[in-house]
Each structure stands twice: as C-alpha cells, then as structure tokens.
Amino acid sequence: MAKVKVRSELRFLLNGDDVVVADVGPDETLLDYLRLRRALRGTKEGCAEGDCGACTVLVGKLAAGKLVYESVNACIRFMGSLDGCHVVTIEHLRGADGALHPVQQAMVDFHGSQCGFCTPGFVMSLYALWMRAPEPSVAAIEKALQGNLCRCTGYEAIVRAARSISRYGQAAKDPLAAERKRVTERLAALRDDARVEVGSGGRRLIVPASADDFASVLEKEPAATVVAGSTDVGLWVTKQMRDISPAVFIGGIEDLRAISEEKGVVTIGAGVTYSEAFAKLSKRIPALGRLIDRIGGDQVRNMGTIGGNIANGSPIGDTPPPLIALGATLTLRKGRKRRTIPLEDFFIAYGKQDRRPGEFVEAVLVPVPAKGEHFSVHKVSKRREEDITATLGAFYLVLARNGTVKSIRIAYGGMAATPKRASAVEAALLGKPWTEANVEAALPAYDLDFSPLTDMRATAAYRALVAKNLLMRFYQETTGTKAPLTVGRQEAA
Amino acid sequence: MNKHATPDLKAASIKGGVHVSQQHDSAHKHVAGNAVYIDDMPEPAGTLHGGLGLSTVAHGVIRSMDLSAVRTAPGVVAVLTAADVPGENDISPSAMHDDPVLADGTVQFHGQPIFCVIAQTRDQARRAARLGKIEYQEQPAVLDIWDLDPDTDRQVFPALTLKRGDAAAALARAPRRVTARMRLGGQDHFYLEGQVSLAVPGEDSEVTVYCSTQGPTETQHMVAHALGIPSSAVTVEIRRMGGGFGGKETQANQCAAIAAIAAKKLGRAIKIRLDRDEDMTATGKRHDFVIDYDVGFDDEGRILAVDYVFALRAGFSADLSGPVGDRALFHCDNAYFFPDVQARSALFHTNTVSNTAFRGFGGPQGMVGAERVIEEVAFAVGKDPLEIRKLNFYDAMGENGARNVTPYHQKVEDCIIQRIVAELEEGCSYARRRREIAAFNNNSRFVKRGIALTPVKFGISFTKTEANQAGALVHVYADGSVHMNHGGTEMGQGLHLKVAQVVAEEFQIDLDRVRITATTTDKVPNTAPTAASSGADLNGMAAQDAARQIKNRLIDFAAERYQVPRDQIVFLPNRVRVGNQEIAFNELVRQAFVARIQLSAAGFYKTPKIHWDRSKGRGHAFYYFAYGAACSEVSVDTLTGEYVVERTDILHDVGRSLNPAIDLGQIEGGFVQGMGWLTTEELVWDDKGRLRTHAPSTYKIPLASDRPKIFNVALTDWSQAYEPTIHRSKAVGEPPLPLAISVLHALSDAVASVAEHKACPRLDAPATPERVLMAIERMKAQADGPTSGG
Prior knowledge:
Number of strands of chain B: 29
Number of domains of chain A: 4
CATH class of the largest domain in chain A: Alpha Beta
Largest sheet of chain A: 5 strands, mixed
Structural class of chain B: alpha+beta
Low-confidence stretches of chain A: none
Largest interface: A-B, 88 and 90 residues
Largest sheet of chain B: 8 strands, mixed
Mean pLDDT of chain A: 96
Number of helices of chain A: 18
Helix content of chain B: 25-40%
Strand content of chain A: 15-25%
Structural class of chain A: alpha+beta
Number of strands of chain A: 21
CATH class of the largest domain in chain B: Alpha Beta
CATH topology of the largest domain in chain A: Ubiquitin-like (UB roll)
Strand content of chain B: 15-25%
Strand order of the largest sheet of chain A: 1-7-8-10-9
Number of domains of chain B: 3
Mean pLDDT of chain B: 97
Distance between the termini of chain A: 47 Å
CATH topology of the largest domain in chain B: Aldehyde Oxidoreductase, domain 4
CATH superfamily of the largest domain in chain A: Beta-grasp domain
Low-confidence stretches of chain B: none
Radius of gyration of chain B: 27 Å
Shape of chain A: globular
Oligomer: heterodimer
C-alpha cells in the first residue's frame, strides 16, 4: 500500500472562518466545541442523544465534487468527523443587510416560537429543507421536522411558517447559495489526501485517507472504535461516558460512500448514509425507502449509515431484517482480504457478530426483487416517526404460477436477541397455496420462532400478536386490495 | 444613541395595545439564536460545575459511602453531601420537611441525588459523579399504586373528600349503575431546556442565583432555608425559561440550593445543569392516577350520583401532591352536574420520584375521570356519548335552575359550555361525520375510524388563597421610556408581552416603549409562582395598578401645571390631551420629572371573592371558569393499534383575548401536549424502581407529524370574563390541555366499533398503539364470547 501523508490537525470551515484544531479529543462533540470553545451559544443542548434536534446545525461536505448541506445533530457529531467540512450554525444565518433570514422572519411572523429553546434547531432544519425545496409540501415539512421536538407550539404555527418561507426571499439568493462557489473551492483546497492523526496516548483520533488506508489502520489498531455516523457511538460518549480512543472516523471516506447497481444487485458502501441510500432505494425497492423515512429524523438519516446499522449488531436495527428477507450479503474486509457472507449469518448472538479483529464491514449487497416478487417491510413503534422499533417484520415472497408459495423469507427485528428469520412460519407456508386460511394456519408457528421480551417499548404479548398481524397485513397487500390496510401520515406513495 | 422610532403623535391607536395579536417579544431573538437562557450566559471567571451522584436503589439505608475516587478524579474541586448543607436539609414546598436537598442516611427512590461533585468542567463533574461507591441496605420499595388501599396505606399528605348530598344512598336507589376503575398515566414535562442554575456568591451571606424557575420567590426562600440565611440575602433572577409546564415550579429548587451551597462554600460561581437523563430520572412529573368510579344513572343517561376515589402516585415526598389531588377532585365533574356526589383523593407514598405540578395540576386527571363516567353511561344506555354529555351539563349562565352547584359547593355562575358545544358541533359537522364514519367502518375491515367531542370547564385561581397575589414595578424614565417588571416568569407563554401590552394600553404608548425585564426577587418580592394559568390575570392587574398610580400622578401634575380639570386630561396614543392642547407623552413625562414628580410605582393585586375551606370541602375556590370544547377524529389500524388523528376542531374561550395570536398558540400547544400525555407518552418503571423511559429515545412526545392532519382552532369571539379580570380576558395556560381528551375518546370510539359499540372499551391512558390493540382484542373476545350477565 502506498504510504499516506499524515496530518496532525483537523481543518474545516465554521461559518465564515477557517478552523485548524490540533488539541481535540476523539470524543469531543461539535456541540461542546461550539458552545464551550467558540461561545456560539445559539445552538442548544436538549437531549445530547440526537433525538430532540435543539442542536441542529448544517454540515456542508463535498460529495463527488458537489457541495451538499445537511442538517445534523451537533450533540452526537464528533469533531473528528468534520475534517474538510463546512459547519453552519444559527449565528451564520442572516438576511440582507443584517435583517432576519427568510426562514427566521417566517418563524417570527407566524408565531413559530414560544419558549424559543428548540427554535434555532427548527430554523436550521427548515433552512436545510428550504435550500433543497423552496416550496415544500406539508408532508415534506413534516418529514424534515421528524428530528425536531417542540414542547410548546403543537407545531401548527411552525408548519405554517415553513410553508411561507419563500414569500420572504428566494432560496437562490440565500447567502449560502451565493457563497457556494467560494466554499466549494475552500473545501476542495482543504483536501490533501492525508490521514489525520490527532492526539496521543489514550486520547487519539484517526481519520483515514481512504478505504485502503482504513483497512491498514484497523489492522494495526484492531481495538479501535470505528465511527461512521456516530448516531450510536455518540451516545456511548454523551450518556455512558465510555472511552472510545482510538476512534477511527470513516464517515468522510469517499470510496466507502458509493452506492451502485449491477445485474439487479445494489451495492451499498459501509459509509453510505440513510439519506444517500434513500435516493437510490426509494426508486428500486420502494418499501425500503418508506422504511428509511421512519428511521430517526433527517439529522440522524444524514449521519447514520446502513453499514453502521448492520455492524453494531443491534436486535432492533431497522435495516437488517428487510435486508435479510431480501437475501443480502455482506462484504467484510481485513487488510486486503475480503470475504462475503449471507447477512443473516453475521448475527451470531446478542452483542456478537461474525466480525474478526481488524475486520470491517465494507459493503452490503442487496438483490432487487424481480417483477412479480413481493417484498414488504412494516415497522411498529410507539410513536410513528423517529422512534425505535417495537416489532419490525420484513417479507419476501415468490409465488409459483399455481399460486403456491415457491419461496418465502420472513425476518423480524425486536423479537429476539438478533434480527431473525421466522423459519417455522416460512416452513408452514412453503409450497402451500397463498391463501388467507393458510396464512391463518401458519400463525401459531410464530410461537416456535420467537419468544419476545417485555421492555419499555412493548410487552411480549403485544410483540407476539403484532408479529402475526403483520403477516396478515402482508398477505392482504399481496391480494392487491384497495381497502386501507394501515394508517399513516402520507397517503400511499 | 437612541435609535428607537419616534412615536407617532397623530396615531388613532397605539401599536401593541390589548386585544391585538402581537409577536412574542423575544421572537426575533429566538429565531436568531441570541435569546439568552441560563446556560448561555457568560460565566463569571472561575465558574465551576456541579454533577450529581444519584441513588442506584429505590429504597435503602446508606451503609457506607466511599467518595475517594470521586474526590481524586480529574478536575474535581469538592464533593458535597448532606453534611455540607449549612441550613435545613429540606426544600419541601408543603412544609412537610420530607424533601432533602441531598439524601441523608436513606434513599427513597432510584435516582435521588446523594452527593454533588464540583469540578472545573461539567464533563469532569459528570464523569466523577459516577465513581462514588455507595453500599445500601436495601429496603422494601413501593413501586405502584394499583394495589394500595386508601384506608391503610401510607399517604404523603392528608387526603381530601368532597361531598354534596348522599352519594351512597343515591347510588343504591339509582335505576342503573356501573362500577369500575381505570389507570391513567403520568407525564414528563420534557421542557426542552433542562433544569439549570448558576449561583454567584456575593458579599457577606449574599448569593445571586440565576435559575430556570417558575417560582423565583419560592426558589429564593428554599435557597435561604438551605443556607440558613435570611431571604433578604438571596436574589433569584430569571429572564426566560426554555419551557416550564409546571416542571420548574418546585423542581428547580434542588439545583438552585445545591449550586448556592457550593458557591458559598467555595466562594466561586457554580453552575449545575442536568443532563436530560438525569433530569427525567431525578425530577418529578405529572402524577399517574388510578381512578375508581361508581356511577348511578337513569335510563335516559342522566347521572344521579357518583362516587370517586382518585388515587395518585405522589412519589417519596409530598411536594405539591396534596393540592394536585385537590384539583383532580375539583375537576371530577368537568362540565357536568352530579346531583349527589362524593369524591376522595388518596395521595399514595411510593418509592419513586416525587411527582409535582404539570400544566393542569391534577385538573386534567379529574376530567378524564368525568369523561370516563360519561362514556360508561353512554354505552350502558346505548346513546352517542355527546348526547349524554349535553344531558348532564351544568345549567347555562343566566338559567336559574338547580343544576349549578359543584361538588365543592361553589355555584357555577358563568357556564357557557352549551353554546360552545353547540357551535362546535355545528361547525365541525359532527352529525354528518358520525354517519360517514359508521359507513366507512362498515366497509373497512382493518382500519376503523372514531370521533368524539368533549368539553372542558377549568377553574381559575390557586386554591392556596395566599398565592393569589401579585406585584409589579413600573418605572417611567425621564425620556418617556418605560421599564416594566413583575413577579411572573416567562416560559414561552408570552406573559411578559401580555403584561407589557397592558402597560402600553394604560399609558397609551406604543408597545416598543415598554421594556420587558428579567424577573428578579429584588424588584418584586413575595410573588406566587407562575402557575395555575394565573400569570396574566395576576401580574397584568398588578402592572396595571402600578401604571395607573403613575398615570394619576401625571394627571395631577398636568391638572395643576396647566390649570385644567382632571377629567379634561386624556391619554391619547403617545400623547396626552390637556384641555385644548396635546402634549407628547414623552414631553409631559419630562416636565413631570423636572417638577419632581415620582415616576416609579409598585403595583399590587389580590384576587377578590375567593375562599376555600379544605377541612369542610367548601368554598368559592375559583374566581371564574374557562371553557372550551374539542372534536377529534382518528383512524386506527386494528392489526397493530397504530393510529393517526385525522382532524381536530377546537372552540375555546379566553374571554376577551389580550393577544389572540399568543392565545391560539397556547391552545394548539396545550392540545398537542395533552394528546401526547394521553397517547404516546408512557412512563415505565421496572421492578427495581428504575425509570426506563428517561430520554427522548424512549419517551415519545408528539412530533409535527403527530398533530392532527386537519387542525382548526378558534377562539369564541363573543365571550368575555364574567368577573372584572384584566380587560375581561381569561386564563389560557392550562385549560386547553384537557381538550385532548377528545382524542382518547375518539380512539375509544374506533375501538368500540369492532364490537358494534355494544360495550364500553375502557381504554386506559396513555392509549399507546399497544393499549389500543389490546382493547380491540378485548372487545373482539367479548363480542365472540358468551354474553355476560352484566
């Protein structure tokens, strides 16, 4: 492997300033940096776990040479992930002549703030939306606000404001739009293909220069904490105060961020965020697109990765069950060596995955269902959006010409210590005519497959019942019925 | 220099008087990120930070406490325990002496603060706080109230009984009768800004505490008490809170007291800001209840008698649980007349965090009990619940019938619920939509719809009579600009704006001439907490009084100076007509100053007419009532219990609104907050007494996408307060929250549809998708099973 340059400081843009920091720990969050070191206190801490959005800022990054701004949660965003980025905080938002920005003025005029504590975060989320959709629909506004909690207004005034922003100015004339070219150049100039290594001893962070570099770093440091989107690792620090040094930040590695399709198989690089995956998957596998809309809010989707969702092995990760149902495989890499395994086999037991020291998840390969094949995924949670799954069922079905079940894969989250297939249910259905009576008859097999737990999200009894009912919902879907099968905010896309 | 606009001396009306929509005074700062909250203030040099060490058992005796690792952790300056409290180790707001600042000897709930680390940084303090080694002798812990007995189990405060007539006898002779019980969950406040205090030591015994508190006076007294110094040595200041909702009425005092103790001990400024998880674990919430009801009624559905027990989870100490239980009883009738009634509270001690005030203060819980009873009667007699509601309303204002006395013997004199419900029913096409929903449900196998229209009658006044007083301080400076201060606190509700509008109106000057200033105990003393929806009612009156004093002095001055009768001096917009000439307000003020007229005044107000004798359960507890009604329609997925609120229509009474835009915001926000309480917000304690839902990842407040898809909110444009309140407006903070009961009942209606509306679903709250699905399963099982004899 070619020798890489090593740099010992982070470089990024903060609002209008060039920033170079060499004294930064692996666990320092952007929020603490802004509030404590830069006295930029417009960005608030509401929860320190990426759920409330009071700390929302924008991060601009170059993706394939193009500057893209995304809303993120500063509270769980580590400084190490910002190398080469442009951080934009509420303090940077101004309209012409120092007046309020259109987003801000709309919020004022439509009474979108009461206590005001969540407001900067809402403004930043709406700003991100407005930049990409100056005339957003109510559904788009609601989606953009899934990651922002307000306890005062009941949201109605905020949504009214969001619909009216373009009355106050044009997105094209926004200061960030005007600066776009200059910022792109400045960010491009920061790129030096160097690995960043900051700190020493027990407080080190590493930003590999490329996937190859990451592979060699991890081989040397198999105990390192790999951080992609930090939507999980962030909480290890802010809530559990765990030591994550040395932390290896891979979210910015361009060659892990590819998503491509070849011969009916979509390959998703480990660094692809939910938002990036959504663009592709919502077209090719619409049910997955709809699921992604229900994972976190925009801020989490802009940071969190599908690779991370798999690699951390959670029993309630939302993407593994549908990917298992689709028959996805996983590419694992150690140094130069790669191996490919069925995704299903990656999950060995609670907290235990088939990942060897120094090895990392490089990509997940997802077969796209062919025409005539059925695929669905249903997530059930206490609150519809931005909630963690109680039970999630994913269903892949191929029927023979005679209407019998030729192939079926059913996988669940929230029902066992790992994402898990409903093998007994599948067996009960395989080869049988796909009828409501046969689906009913297969339901008792769920009790062979799963003995779910009771926790704060749901009781075992509810999980067991809903798991069965989701198969019934899937059956009804495959009948092509026009009757409503579920409730939702956005009418069926 | 002076860059404010020159006042318009020809204007027909001032900018920003009363009854006019005005943007929140801080709106431009909120959106720009430069509204300053406590944690945003520049810290004094040398500020240190506190981190709390919390109990890890629900009930136990501390056998040993080894804090050596805490003391030697990086950055640690000091560690405080109960032994470091110089005054009384108690911050009980109810004089029960049961609320230690730091636990001493025993711990009474999981998460109770035991010690406080003071370190150079907050991060160091938090890390060090986890290094304490505490051994406990664990004791049996009471973790739920379902099985507790009001007659034998421990209560934290004397219970209340309301009684009118003879409920037992009336129930015995009632033609129909239903007895059951329900469970009603609690609620975390989830103010976006958590508890925070910054204490700055002063000279001698003095200390100033910047505290996110709804009750600066109470915080001041508690800090003084814990420090063992007079209240005069303590100043508490708050410019704004990032949300309060009752959660900073008493719960702010603990951080304030600890910070002040540390500040005085170390001679350094001390900041304590709780992490969200600590905040949710260690501070009190809305009380969950178990409500037992026994209702007697006739075949028409007219209620004849009710007997209630409202049992609440007080937690380990009394805090405000007594008055919260009282207010639940005060609202067990909601808008309905009960001919014979008895209602008892049970204020159960549990080894969980001590529950506290939360918007509505027990009132919403009482009303849920009332509406459950209505629903039972409706299902029993087979009528639309709305019919039963209307049949049982109190007599309308002006109707001199006999159905107008509450269970606490107050006559309801201002009842306008009939007109509100009639207008709402018509306006939202209730009858047509009920028919459409029935047709939809007949044709939809998996998705069912439901609708409900529920009323609200909410009593306004603190039932603690001494709390119904307020003060204000108004200065008019020689340039005619006005400094306004009062005892109320700003938590987003627009109180400062409303009071400033009152002052602007009084002086007839533009609103931007009135400066809003931070609430502080050294300007206005002995104030009530901003609670019980009373902020504008009380402080608006006090500020008006202050402004009137100054205005009267200006009139006296002008009368003498210009030799015109007092009645020929009229305050016009930004000017004063004195006889035949008009003088700019600013100019008259300047002349008055030169003539050595006092241009500062302290105003005062106390609510008239109210009295309450708790021992007898009788009195005129409320100055007046606020009314409203909401109609909600839901869709329910009967396979999962998931639901959406399709539409909500609200008609709400705020009298003559001081600021319609602000009031609409309170109604929308209150409704959605109430909806969260009754739907997705679920507090779960495990069998060790640990709260498992202590962060937004596990505790789910409504999102933008949870608000009703169609959300129509209107103010009654015809109502005005029956009593001479401030400009005939009515309180708006709490009354809208229980409008959300319409969502619970709409869900119940949808659930009932799976069994042809033959039985009362008895859907408890919070009606999570799980509870909805389980209710559906219960209804299906009942419909399929053998018909029961009940």
